[in-house]
Specification:
- By secondary structure, the protein is α+β, with helices and mostly antiparallel strands.
- The protein has 25 helices and 20 strands.
- β8 and β9 form a beta hairpin.
- α3 packs across α11.
- The longest helix is centred in the N-terminal third of the chain and has 50 residues.
- One of its GO terms (biological process) is glycerol-3-phosphate metabolic process.
- GO terms for molecular function: calcium ion binding; glycerol-3-phosphate dehydrogenase (quinone) activity.
- It catalyses: a quinone + sn-glycerol 3-phosphate = dihydroxyacetone phosphate + a quinol.
- Pathway: Polyol metabolism; glycerol degradation.
């Protein structure tokens, strides 16, 4: 009874606090609308109509853009090609300011491609705002909800609403969560995607059959947005370039240029593709480098105090069958208080994230302990009939969040997730913090600050609300059907092209070659498990892909989805890029090595090997003897290790034709210490991993099974 009354009182207080914050904020919003109404009705609307005309023709080449950077002088130079930097470049250029952007690596190569893939306001931030009666935090959520709606509108091919389930296992939680979710709808106002609702246990199990049903009372369903983050980032960059901005990836800032008064007036940069250095002159320089914020700030003012504290967030990718194709899951209270999302994405399942202090690095790598933490939390929410195995993790990555202290405030003890804008004594404009969803608003405020600080002369105000991004102009949800009917493509391929390139999908389709089959007529897949085409590699080079990593990680998302598949397509990716970009054999080998290192380190392959290496030997005496006998059948010379030659001889004796490349892949997958040999200890480790689930579907073991060897070690829970 007491708990029931407490819930009711809590619900009333929660609703009352939300209404009070809304009323205070509404007064300010009405005042702002009154001041700006005439502007938005005239100049903004006319300018937006002009900007929203679909550009025709191809993109300028990277060489054209670099030549422009060398020869022209700019109003604004943006350092950083993530979501924030891309947003600043687009905002500034569409206001009539001559804009340049340089990125050390590839566009979206850092944090902006390693997010949870959600476009959201922040349910937990709203709860904190209401209970703490924090108007600033409330406004941050409201701002994010506006940006959520805007992003879904301006890039509908790359984003969509996603229902997210919040399972309830205690009756008293139903009204508590219900009030919080309804407050989220309430604050969204007219921009609410779809209204949240409660479902009983039976309907919850229908939606999410793998959910743990013991003590399940029901579930709440609310809606947020989901997107392809790297492609969204690239769409913003391409839109800025279409509008006239000069943007170049793989361009490192060596130092900032200053005038005689010590004011920043540009940057000395090095083109990491061609190797040459040059100066870029600009009236204002914007630092939008995320976790590397302080690196650029210290270039401008060596005595400045650092403000950024990077925090690593790890995500993992599991096979698609782990979640329904159209419903996500939120765990609001994990064992250590963090929130875990469990979401369908690109026909796979993404889970995360963690939150831990991290060192600053260009190559963040997931740790096995973080992967295990996520897996353990997932196990707590899924049915006991489902074995959540470490070996099912197809990819894992870490992204660095740029948590910041506001240098403009005296109290810098706490780190904030909202953004700050700083104008240094040398004139450098820094935008730091924030989150993906609010990139556009952050950019707007940053350009406003740069205009004021440097007396810039834009020809119009901010035009980015409602400004359609690359591919959105003539896109509609049924566009993929035209690709199927007009070009003879498979449905999944056509859907992928439509949802990746929008109305530019037809350009990619025209680049496809005939398959020589009755069906599909065009469209050669890079990998049979994924809808990616070889023609997309050639198109990626037009979208400024300069390395194999640019293609497999960001133009396509294969490295993020399945590291095995990414390794398998690499030789073909490099071969096609060599034709497009003129790479010689030495450069091709270098690209292969860099991409393999990227997959192994940054996409979780090393963490997987570490997990297998740490597996305790759990074989019985009988299983150990059986494994040893199988090892000896391969190691006929009794060397104590297995080489590629041993595998080659084994398959030849059984008249099995195995490609030479595949032989090396088979050995590499089980060679834990990477010395080119499979030792008996590693062999035992492999079978212990298969038995415990840390390793699944090992190809070498499958081939050995097909050879009808007498020995078989079964994994608990259903074989190999």
């Amino acid at each position: 009874m007491f708990r029931s009354k407490a819930v009711k009182i809590g619900g009333l207080l929660l609703g009352g606090s939300a209404a009070t914050l809304w009323a205070i904020d509404l007064t300010n919003e009405k005042r702002f609308k009154t001041q700006c109404q005439s502007y938005f009705r005239t100049a903004h609307a006319d300018r937006l109509t002009e900007l929203n005309k679909r550009p025709s023709g191809g993109l300028p080449t990277r060489e054209d853009l670099v030549n422009g950077l060398k020869k022209e002088e700019f109003d604004i130079l943006v350092i950083g090609g993530g979501a924030s930097g891309a947003g600043v470049a687009l905002d500034a250029q569409t206001r009539g300011l001559k804009t340049a952007l340089v990125e050390y690596d590839d566009f979206s190569s850092g944090t902006s491609s390693r997010s949870t893939k959600l476009i959201h306001g922040g349910v937990r931030y709203l709860q904190a705002a209401i209970f703490g009666f924090d108007l600033e935090q409330y406004r941050m959520v409201k701002e994010a909800l506006f940006e959520r709606a805007n992003l879904l509108e301006i890039a509908p091919h790359l984003s969509c609403p996603l229902p997210i389930m919040l399972p309830v296992y205690n009756w008293w939680q139903v009204p508590y969560y219900w009030v919080g979710i309804k407050a989220y709808d309430f604050v969204s106002g007219k921009r609410v995607l779809k209204n949240s609702f409660y479902i009983n246990k039976e309907k919850a199990m229908e939606r999410f059959p793998m959910l743990k049903k013991d003590n399940l009372r029901g579930a709440l369903i609310y809606y947020d947005g989901q997107h392809n983050d790297a492609r969204m980032n690239l769409a913003i960059i391409l839109t800025a370039i279409r509008q006239g901005a000069r943007c170049a990836n793989h361009t490192k800032v060596e130092r900032l240029l200053k005038d005689e008064n010590g004011k920043v007036i540009g940057a000395r940069v090095r083109d990491q593709v061609k190797g040459d250095e040059y100066d870029i002159k600009a009236k204002a320089v914007v630092n939008a480098t995320g976790p590397f914020t302080d690196t650029i700030r210290l270039m401008a003012d060596p005595e400045t105090e650092p403000i950024c504290a990077p925090s690593a967030g790890v995500h993992i990718v599991l096979p698609g069958y782990y979640s329904p194709s159209n419903t996500g899951l939120l765990d609001p209270a994990t064992s250590d208080g963090r929130v875990i999302f469990f979401l369908p994405w690109e026909r796979m399942t993404i889970a995360g994230t963690t939150d831990a202090r991290s060192e600053l690095t260009h190559s963040p790598a997931p740790k096995d302990q973080d992967i295990e933490f996520i897996l353990n939390e997932i196990r707590g929410y899924l049915s006991k009939d489902v074995t959540v195995r470490r070996g099912d993790v197809m990819s894992a990555w870490a992204g660095l969040r740029p948590l910041v202290k506001d240098p403009n405030k005296k109290d810098t003890a706490s780190l904030a997730r909202n953004h700050i804008i700083e104008i240094s004594k040398s004139g450098l404009v820094t935008i730091a913090g924030g989150k993906w969803t609010t990139y556009r608003h952050m950019a707007e405020e940053t350009v406003d600050a740069a205009i004021k600080a440097h007396n810039l002369k834009p020809t119009s105000g901010c035009c980015t609300p409602g400004l359609r991004l690359e591919g959105a102009h003539n896109w509609d949800p049924l566009l993929y059907i035209h690709l199927v009917q007009d070009y003879g493509m498979e449905v999944d391929v056509a859907q992928h092209l439509s949802n990746t390139y929008g109305d530019r999908a037809f350009v990619v389709a025209r680049m496809c070659k005939m398959t020589g089959k009755r069906w599909p007529i065009v469209g050669k897949k890079l990998h049979e498990e994924f809808p990616y085409l070889d023609a997309e590699i050639r198109y990626a080079c037009r979208e400024y892909a300069a390395t194999a990593i640019d293609v497999i990680a960001r133009r396509l998302r294969l490295a993020f989805l399945n590291t095995y598949a990414a390794h398998e397509v690499l030789p073909e990716v490099v071969r096609i890029m060599a034709e497009e970009l003129g790479w010689n054999s030495s450069e091709q080998r270098r690209q292969l090595e860099m991409a393999r290192t990227f997959i192994d380190k940054e996409m979780g392959q090393e963490a997987r090997a570490q997990a297998v290496s740490n597996v305790p030997l759990n074989l019985t005496k009988e299983e150990m003897q059986q494994a040893k006998e199988r090892f000896n059948q391969l190691d006929k010379d009794r060397k104590g290790h297995i080489t590629v030659n041993d595998l080659r001889r084994h398959f030849r004796e059984r008249n099995q034709k195995i490609d030479e490349r595949l032989l090396h892949e088979l050995l590499n997958e089980v060679d834990l210490n990477k010395n080119g040999e499979l030792e008996i200890a590693e062999f035992f480790q492999l079978y212990s991993g298969l038995k415990g689930g840390q390793v699944v579907q090992n190809r070498l073991v499958r081939y050995l099974d097909e050879a009808n060897l007498d020995v078989s070690v079964q994994r608990s829970g259903g074989g190999l």
